[in-house]
Amino acid sequence: MNGRYLLADSPKERIAIAVVAALHSYFKQHPKGVAPGQHFLADFLEPFIEREMVGRALEELHRDHAGRELELVKKVQELIELCAKRIF
Prior knowledge:
This protein is mainly α. Helices cover about 85% and strands about 0% of the residues. The chain has helices spanning about 5, 10-30, 40-85. The longest helix has about 50 residues, at about 40-85. The N and C termini lie far apart (about 65 Å). The model has no long low-confidence stretch (mean pLDDT about 90).
């Protein structure tokens, strides 16, 4: 697997690249073997799939956090305006 994985824009692209890498790895280890079974693929692809899952969780966390941050910023702005009105 070359740098294409690191440059891929979507989970679909990254997983496709990982599957191709899994197939190359399998046939390198088993040059006369038949197609790899689900256990080989599951083991090989596990960190790739977990990376996508954790990445998705981070995106959701950021989205939730960003929404809460915006809510708090608006509240602070409202309070600043209210305080300014009471002072002047």
